Inverse folding.
């Protein structure tokens, strides 16, 4: 049986996902009744979800009442990516200094092997790309969960709700697959370095690698903004990002 709490959570997840996929245009009004009909839900969970999304910074009050979709400056997205790097670097440092369990290290090495199989071959396919995304999400999740600091995990969950700030949101999208593959290989070498630092209990090195790791998504953001037509095909939500405020 679906409880009110379950329905509220489902509506919130659906709306957040639609926003991040670019299904709403900047300044588009988000009215309760049409959204409720679209989602097959009552107005109450939609109203509560909209209030939560405003608190998260994804939408804003509409001049005519209610809410509207907001846009994001490139600086806002860049700051969110940089902040993720600081938090993930701190998580890696904590994990290195406290020591990772054998089980966690096995899982991290499984991620490394999966990533190696995806990026180190003559030509990557779209299936390989999807495999890398799955591996990348798992890799970052393992480090954050393993660091033992729930505050870091909560803050990263909040950041993941911002456009293109999640770990796999700004993977290489260069015009040629081979160029994108080179960037993914570079990113994956950093994964290897992070695991090596964690195993060697080198906290500072792990932190620096975690912070350095986000330089690639930052460069990909810049690339996406200079190639808007290509970016819109791969990431429709990029139209929410503008160069100026």
């Amino acid at each position: 049986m679906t409880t009110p709490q379950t329905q509220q959570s489902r509506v919130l997840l659906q709306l957040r996902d639609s926003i991040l996929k670019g299904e709403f245009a900047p300044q588009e009004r988000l009215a309760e009744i049409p959204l409720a009909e679209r989602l097959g839900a009552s107005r109450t969970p939609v109203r509560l979800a909209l209030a939560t999304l405003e608190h998260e910074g994804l939408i804003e009050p509409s001049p005519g009442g209610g809410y509207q979709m907001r846009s994001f400056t490139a600086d806002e997205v860049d700051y969110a990516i940089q902040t993720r790097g600081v938090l993930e670097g701190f998580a890696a440092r904590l994990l290195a200094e406290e020591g990772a369990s054998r089980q966690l290290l096995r899982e991290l090495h499984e991620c490394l092997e999966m990533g190696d199989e995806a990026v180190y071959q003559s030509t990557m396919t779209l299936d390989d790309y999807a495999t890398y995304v799955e591996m990348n999400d798992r890799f970052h999740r393992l480090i954050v969960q393993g660091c033992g600091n729930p505050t870091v995990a909560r803050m990263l969950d909040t950041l993941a709700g911002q456009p293109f700030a999640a770990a796999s949101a700004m993977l290489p999208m260069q015009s040629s697959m081979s160029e994108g593959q080179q960037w993914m290989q570079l990113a994956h070498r950093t994964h290897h370095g992070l695991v090596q630092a964690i195993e060697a209990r080198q906290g500072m090195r792990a932190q620096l690698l975690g912070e350095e790791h986000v330089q690639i998504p930052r460069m990909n953001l810049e690339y996406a903004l200079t190639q808007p037509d290509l970016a819109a095909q791969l990431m429709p939500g990029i139209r929410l990002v503008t160069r100026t405020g």
